[in-house]
Specification:
Two copies of one chain form a homodimer. By secondary structure, the first copy, chain A, is mostly helical. Helix content of chain A is about 50%, strand content about 5%. Chain A has helices at about 5-20, 30-35, 40-55, 70-75, 80-85, 90, 110-125, 135; strands spanning about 60, 65-70. In chain A, helix 2 (about 30-35) crosses helix 3 (about 40-55). The structure holds a DNA duplex.
Chain lengths: ~140, ~140
DNA sequence: AAAATAAAAGACAAAAATATCTTTTATTAA
DNA sequence: TTAATAAAAGATATTTTTGTCTTTTATTTT
């Protein structure tokens, strides 16, 4: 299994793509995004609609419209995207799927995974949506294939 | 999203359950296991058949038959169960789902997740199937709900 | 106002994961 | 050697995830 759902993978890649494309103020259309991150266009559209409804990204209809992320939003942590799409089970769920797993009623892997989940959470909390704009502009990082 | 698939969660819980129930040499039936870990019986049966075919656990048909794990197998790492069920993408896959992601062509999260994946891998490599038998016998750890 | 553009929304389809039910095979015990 | 037991195997069903296609709404430009 992967860490994120396919939906979340597309969401993160799209958000990075939009962030770096609109750091200069321009908007970018769904077609460009889908091709820029190598994802199915209409499926991605649904995902972005959802992120837009939740206020994590912005969009404008009509000619010269498209998606964008404003400067304050660039500073938000990636964890908000993940949580909006995949929920918080990656951060708080039991690795063995036990509802009642806790400090007082731990599954065998409870402590080990608590540390790992905390690390993932911390990492995604300190990584902002705009973190990679420069490297993306310089072509040092990849978002497709 | 969870770390493991539901199938893998059941597999790990079942393996721990069988390990501790058979540390004394007895076999345990699918009904007992399913109830002991709170999983759908027939679905679990499929999973255990698969693990049995792959030699990770053992079984015997007929009266007084059931599943068991022999002493050498108790020493095998949990990572083998995970890999048998979920494959190795948790250990080696790109967090953003990019096939071509690598050191020379990294996705934005490549380095951070490489460290996390390594940690998970290491942990599951050093945790053996029989690791928790004592705590399970003492009722200190939970495998259901 | 009309035409063009682009996201939003809705309906539908395919694939994968999860779950259930039935039949078969191997083994044991009476 | 028949009956009982228990896993293996097969068939089918349900749910969730992923993906596609069409229509509607909002906005802009002519």
């Amino acid at each position: 299994m992967a860490i994120f759902s396919k939906t979340c993978e597309y969401a993160i890649r799209a958000v990075f793509f939009i962030a770096h494309k609109t750091a200069t103020g321009n908007r970018v259309g769904i077609k460009d995004i889908a091709q820029g991150i190598d994802s199915p266009e209409h499926f991605l559209a649904k995902i972005l609609q959802d992120l837009s409804r939740k206020g994590l990204i912005s969009s404008i209809k009509g000619p010269h419209g498209g998606f964008y992320i404003d400067t304050p939003a660039l500073a938000r942590p990636l964890s908000e995207i993940v949580e909006a799409v995949d929920g918080n089970s990656l951060f708080y769920g039991c690795a063995l799927g036990l509802k009642q797993c806790s400090e007082v009623n731990p599954c065998p892997l409870h402590n080990e995974f608590k540390a790992i989940r905390n690390r993932i959470h911390k990492m995604l909390n300190t990584t902002t949506i705009g973190s990679f704009n420069e490297e993306l502009m310089e072509g040092l990082l990849s978002l497709k294939k």
